[in-house]
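Researcher: First entry.
Model:
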Amino acid sequence: MSSAVVFRRLLILPPAIRRHAYSTAVASRPEVYDVVCVGGGPVGLSFVSALQSHNTTRHLKIALVDSQDLSISKSGNDGETYSNRCSSLTPAALRYLKSIGAWNKIESERLQPYHAMDVWDGVSGSKIHFEDQPGTGLVDSLLELVPGNRFQASRTRYETGSTVVATMCENSNLTGALLQRIKELKSEAGSLKVLDKTKVSSIDLGQTPTDETSPDFSQWPLLTTSAGQTLAARLLVGADGANSPVRQFADIPSPGWDYNQHGVVATLNLDRDFSSSELRTAYQRFLPTGPVALLPLPGKKASLVWSTTPQHAAALKSLDSAGFTAAVNAAFRLMPVDINFMLSSSSTSTPESELAWREPATPPSSTGLPASFPRIIGVQEGSQASFPLRLRHASTYTGHRVALIGDAAHSIHPLAGQGLNLGLADAEALAKQMVYGVEHGMDIGSCWCLDGYGSERWGKNNAMLGVVDKLGKLYSAGSGPVVWGRSLGLGLVDRLGVVKSALVGAAAGRG
C-alpha cells in the first residue's frame, strides 16, 4: 500500500488519531532491499564489496547486517604482536581481493608470503617438499597485488626458481581492509546500508496482502532485527557462519560429522628471523592424533594450528607459557608415543623436563624433521585458544530468494588451510552470478538466477571437503600397513615433479 493511499484512508479520522495511525501504518511496512547479507566477516564483506564495485550491480539496494561492531579499524596490534586468527590466502583469493579494490587497503607490513611447504609423516618420517615452480606467472600477479615494494625479494626468489605459494594474513587485517573499501564504496554509490551491532531476531516469509494496493511479500524473506527494523529481501544471503540462521530459515539440511578433535591455535616466537634470500616455509607434521602446522608470520613469529584430541587440547590450554612452548617443540621433534605421554594425565613431570631428556635421544632423521625447521622459544601471551573441528556441507547452496556462502554453506577441517579461501571463492561466484542476472533482466532472487552459483561451487567444494577428510583419516593410523602404504606414496609423490606441481596448483586455487 502506498503512503498516498494510506493518507487518503486516514483523512476521515480526527487529527490526533490520524497522525498516530498514519505513522504506525507506514512504520509497520518492511523496508525493501534487493540484497540483505547477514554476516560481516571477510566472506560477507567481500561479497558486498564485489557487488558495490561492479558498475552493473552497484545500484542495487543492499543491507549488511552483523551483530559485531563494524567500525573501521585495522588489526589493532603493534608490530610485535599478531592475532591467533590468521588465514593462508591463495593467489586466487588475492586476485579476487584485488579485483574488488580491497587488497590495496591491507596493512602490507603484516603480511607474510611463504614459498614452500614441508609435510611429513609423524610415524614413519616420510616427507615431501612442495615448492611452486616458475613459469606460471604467479609471482608477477602477486607483486601487482602487494602495495609498496615490501616483497621485491619475491621477484629475486622467482628469478632463482621459487615462487610464492600462499600469503599469511590476520583475519582482522583483511576485515579492516574490506571495511575501508566498503566505506569508500558507500560514499560513492550511496545504495548500501550497514546495520552493525544489530542481531537478527527472526526471519519469516511475508504475509499475503489483505488488499490489492498492498505489496505482495508472501514469498519474500522478512528479517526482523533487534532494533525492531523489518527488512524485505529480494535475495537473502547467509554469510552468518556454521550455525547460520539464514540456512535454518531456508530449511536446508547440512549433514556432516564431528571429528572428535579440537584445533589449538596460538602465536609463537621463533629463535631466528629469515633473511631475504631464504625461503619462508610452512611446516606440517601428521600425527595419529591430528596434524600440527607452523605457518610463518613476519619477523620471528609464526602461527600454530594443532589439531588434536579434546583431552590433549585441554592439557595444552592448562599449561603455562614454558610448558606450552615445550609441548609445541615436542609435537614436531619427538615420536608420537612421547608426545602422548607428555600430554597425558599419567605424566608427573613438566613438558620442559620431558623434552629436555627425550629430544637428545630422538635424532631428526627418525622423525623427518626438516633441517630448516626453527625452534619455538615462546608463545605470545593470551594467544592460545581452541575450537571443535567438524565437517558440514549444505545439501544445496540456494533456495527461493536465499543463497549461502562461506561457513554457512560448508565447514572443513583446517589441515589444508582452505576454509576462508573456499568462502571467498563462494562470494566471488555469487557476485558474478548477480552481475549476470542483472545484465540479463533476471529476478536476482529466483532460482533461474541462483542455480548457476550452486552449480559452479557445490561440486568443487564437495571435492575439496572429501579430499581433506580422507587425508585426515588416512594419517590417523598409527601403525600397520596403512603407514607403510602412505609413506611409500609420499615418497613417490616427492620424486614426481609434475604431480607436486599439480598439487601446489590446486592448493593455490589454480585448479
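Researcher: Second entry.
Model:
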Amino acid sequence: MSNSKEADETVSGDATPGTRPALSVLDHAGIVEGSDPGQALRDARELAQNLERRGYHRFWLSEHHNMRAIASAATSVSLGFIAEGTSTIRVGSGGVMLPNHSPLVIAEQFGTLESLYPGRIDLGLGRAPGTDPRTMRALRRDQTSSSTFPNDVQELQAYFEPAVPGQPVRAVPGEGLRVPLWILGSSLFGAQLAAHLGLPYAFASHFAPSALYDALDAYREGFAPSAQTEKPYAMAGINVCVADTDEEAERLFTSMRLSFLGILRNERGLLQPPVEPSTLDTMWRPGEKPQLDMMLRYSFVGSPETVVAKIDRFVADTGVDELMLSSMIFDKEARMRSYELLADAYGLEAPTSG
C-alpha cells in the first residue's frame, strides 16, 4: 500500500493540510430524463454554489462528446458559466481531452477564464478521446493524436509562461498567467508523465480502478519537482451516494448503476430514475454484474457515518492528498442533500468571507 503524504502547499490551489484530505466534486452536467442541456447546466451551477457554501474545494466538469446524458461538451464555456455564479470554489476541467484540441486554443480559453476569475481556475488534462471513434473523426481528431500528448502538454504549459522577446506565437489571454495544470489518467502512462513534468496527478478510480495503487506508486517514486509543484500531490476519484439511511442510499445509487449498465451495453441514454435494488437482479446478462462491480469498486454508498468510515479507510490505504467525488443521483434535491450530509459528517467548513 502507498504511504500517506502531507499535502503540498506549493501546489496551486491545494487545500490546507489537515487531518483529512480536501473534498472536491467532478460533475458531468448530467441530463436526466425529462430535462434538457440548459437545465442541466443551470442545475450544475446551483450545485456548485451549494458546494461552495459547504466548504468543498473544487468543482470540475468533464469533457464528453456525443453523449445524450452529458451537457458539458463545450467545457470551457460551461466552466465560465459556473465560475460566474460562484466566488471562492476553484473551477476547472476534469478534464479537457487535449488531443481533441490545439494547445494554443486551450491556452486562450483557459487564459480567458483565468483573466476573468483569477486564482480560481484549474486545467485538468487527459489524452482519451472522451467519445466514440466516429465522433473522434467528427472532431477532426487523428487516430494517432494521443501519441503527441506529452509534447502537447508542454506546448500548452509554455503558452502560460511570460512571453520572450521575438516569440512568434503567443496566447492572449494566457501568457504569464501560469494556469495550474493537472494530469488525469487511469494507467501508468499518466502517472509517469505527471511525475516527469512535476505536475499534480488525478487518478480516475471512480470508473477505472484497477491500476490505482500501481499508478500512485509510480507517480510518487518518479516525481521530479517543478516550478508548479515541489512534492507529489495525488487526487483519486470515488463515487459517493449519501442519504439518511443505507437503504435509501442504495436505492438512489441504482441510477448510476443503470447508467453504467447502459455503457457496458453501448446503450447510452439519459439518467434514469432510481429503482429498487432487487430490480437489478432481474436485468443482468452473463458477466455484466462482475464487470460493473469492478468498474464501480470505489463507490461509497450509505448513511453519512457509513460513507465517511469508507472514505477514511480509502484515504488510509492510498495516502491521497485530495478526493474528487462523483455522483449520479437522479433527483436534484437528493443529489444536493447527499453532498450536504457528507460535508457535515466529514467536518467541512464553509469558507470565510474576505
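Model: Note on the second entry: The longest strand covers residues 234-242.
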